[in-house]
């Protein structure tokens, strides 16, 4: 029913077939591929940060935070859209950092791969295309500042055209056909459904089962879209200024306030422990939240997430237009607007963790540069410090 599940269904079908060939358990194999993808995404992100900043301490710190929040998260063992999208977002962000530090013709190759990666990732979640929009606006603003990136803009638009044609017009239909994934388009939920759910006053725009029942109860696609849109508009029109501010404030906190990305709520989906041996039970104590007691790992995640949000609060509001700030700012604003408009969950930020890790790295780099500048003014020279790397 959910459009972004089509790409997931194709991938899962392929992985299950591979697991049969390799004589492996399908569930374990798909979870392992998801875990490998997230870990690979963390490494790609570290490489991108290294190419942009070049300070080993910052690169390692960024990689460790990405590993704890991403690679050791509950969702890494849940082969779903969020897990499989993670490496594509990390690739797009890293390639942007490399793009800003490269010269032609490497620049154009990086842009093509960057846009193509985003469109492949959109098969799991269309939200990733926010990064492509941010890239286009960033280049247009740089062109307006006479930075001479007209060829870059043309390359991006050509890449968008080719990528959309190859992914949506060629690859996706072929894979669905050969892997026998045949969704019924009449039963698929459209953006109207997510717009309706995003305006739900009871759940503050988060997932709501009653909204799913409303959409699922209308078999005709046109009638369902009209009903969803009508409900969404009536909900928005019912808000006054005060209630709208309260609604979106709560929705924003729901989205950004949980550094575990929803472990406490959605992580209850696995009530059965497959083994009573010591290791599974010990791991369960780290992840699960029982008797309303926060888990050890959940507390660590929340602390690191607060650090990332603090860095975002320090970097993004600044008026600087150099380096990577504009792209990061546009990506953050686009992602937030998307989630505020449609259905939201804390889990939806898991895939976009690389954005916040890069914001952390850039913020930390600027703090180090400012500290070094102060020390130089005082006549203190650091040999072998981070500023010399």
UniProtKB/TrEMBL annotation:
Keyword Transmembrane helix (UniProt): yes
The organism's place on the tree of life at top rank: Bacteria
Transmembrane segments: 27-50, 57-77, 83-99, 106-122, 128-144, 153-175, 296-317, 324-342, 348-369
Entry keywords, A to Z: Membrane, Transmembrane, Transmembrane helix
Identification of the protein by name: Glycosyltransferase RgtA/B/C/D-like domain-containing protein
């Amino acid at each position: 029913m959910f459009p972004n599940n089509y790409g997931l269904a194709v991938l899962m079908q392929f992985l299950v077939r591979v697991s049969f060939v390799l004589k492996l358990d399908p569930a374990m194999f798909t979870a392992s591929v998801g875990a490998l993808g997230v870990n690979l995404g963390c490494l790609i992100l570290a490489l991108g940060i290294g190419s942009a900043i070049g300070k080993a301490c910052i690169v390692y710190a960024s990689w460790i935070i990405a590993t704890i929040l991403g690679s050791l998260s509950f969702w890494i063992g849940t082969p779903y859209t969020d897990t499989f999208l993670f490496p594509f977002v990390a690739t797009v962000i890293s390639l942007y950092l490399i793009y800003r530090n490269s010269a032609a013709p490497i620049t154009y190759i990086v842009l093509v791969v960057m846009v193509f990666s985003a469109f492949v990732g959109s098969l799991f979640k269309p939200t990733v295309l926010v990064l492509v929009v941010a890239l286009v606006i960033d280049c247009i603003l740089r062109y307006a500042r006479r930075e001479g990136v007209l060829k870059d803009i043309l390359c991006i638009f050509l890449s968008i055209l080719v990528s959309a044609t190859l992914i949506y017009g060629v690859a996706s239909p072929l894979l669905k056909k050969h892997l026998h994934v045949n969704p019924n388009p009449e039963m698929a939920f459209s953006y109207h459904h997510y717009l309706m759910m995003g305006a739900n006053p009871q759940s503050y725009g988060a997932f709501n089962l009653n909204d799913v029942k409303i959409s699922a109860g209308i078999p005709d696609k046109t009638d369902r879209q009209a009903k969803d849109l009508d409900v969404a508009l009536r909900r928005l029109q019912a808000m006054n200024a005060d209630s709208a501010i309260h609604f979106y404030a709560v929705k924003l906190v729901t989205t950004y306030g949980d550094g575990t990305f929803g472990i406490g709520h959605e992580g209850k989906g696995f009530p059965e422990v497959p083994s009573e041996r010591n290791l599974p039970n010990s791991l369960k104590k780290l992840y699960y939240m029982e008797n309303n007691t926060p888990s050890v790992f959940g507390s660590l995640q929340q602390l690191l997430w607060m650090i990332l949000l603090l860095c975002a609060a320090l970097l993004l509001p600044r008026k600087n237009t150099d380096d990577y700030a504009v792209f990061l700012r546009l990506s953050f604003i686009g992602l937030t607007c998307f989630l505020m408009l449609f259905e939201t969950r804390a889990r939806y930020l898991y895939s976009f963790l690389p954005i916040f890790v890069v914001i952390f790295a850039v913020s930390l780099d600027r703090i180090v540069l400012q500290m070094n500048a102060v020390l130089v003014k005082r006549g203190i020279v650091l040999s072998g410090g981070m500023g010399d790397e």
